[in-house]
Amino acid sequence: MALKITDQFWQTLSLGIIAGMRSMAAPAITSHILSHHHSKALEGSPLNLMQSEKVALVLKVLAVSEFVGDKMPSAPNRIKPTALGARFLSGALAGASIYKAAGGNAITGALLGGATAAASTFASFYIRKATVKKTGILDPVIGFIEDALVAGGGAKLITTA
Questions:
Q1: Does residue 39 come out as left (phi exceeding 0), alpha (psi in the -120 to 50 range) or beta?
Q2: pTM metric for this prediction
Q3: Burial class of 2 by CB neighbour count within 10 A (0 to 12, 13 to 18, 19+)
Q4: CA dist 17 to 10, 41, 58, 63, 154, Å?
Q5: What is the mean pLDDT of each run of 10 residues along the chain (161 residues)?
């Protein structure tokens, strides 16, 4: 089936937001979309690997693992430099892949996805902490709600691709 990316800007922005909340979810969603809707624009590019069904499966397993790991008390804060860098790179990979698949500039997509992921990382971190503090709801419960937002956003992106 041919890929029809209707609005690469908004799709990349959405993937960046998701990457800020769960770093592995954005590449998993992107690879799922691209493995089901191949783009000739990615052929011959290093980003072509995002169209592989095997890569999509590995990324999905990593994303589910992250959903579980996020609830552990030992999970590092997402705003620490290495975690923030991983989220930036995750958003950048997703954005570059979407932009390139649509025939656009991969660098533009990478910058938009990465910057959005970085902003989303801080926003989601402080919103989660404030919600726990103000409501008294346990952090893992708020984490499950965050997972539901990520999964719902991802499902919407997949069904509109």
A1: beta
A2: 0.92
A3: exposed
A4: 11, 25, 21, 15, 11
A5: 72 96 97 93 95 97 91 87 96 97 95 98 96 95 93 89 70
Q: How far apart are CA 27 and CA 21, in angstroms?
A: 13
Distance CA 46, CA 7 (A): 22
Structure tokens that stand for 82 in this block: 């290495």
The residue among 71, 73, 83, 67 whose CA lies nearest residue 117 is: 83
Q: Are 109 and 12 in contact (CB under 8 A)?
A: yes
**Residue pair 5/15 in contact by the 8 Å Cβ criterion:** no
What is the number of residues in the chain?
Answer: 161
Cβ-based neighbour number of residue 17 at 10 Å: 22
Q: What is the distance between the alpha carbons of residues 15 and 150, in angstroms, rounded to a whole number?
A: 9
| CA atoms of 77 and 132, how far apart (whole Å) | 15
Distance of CA 148 to the CA centre of its chain: 14
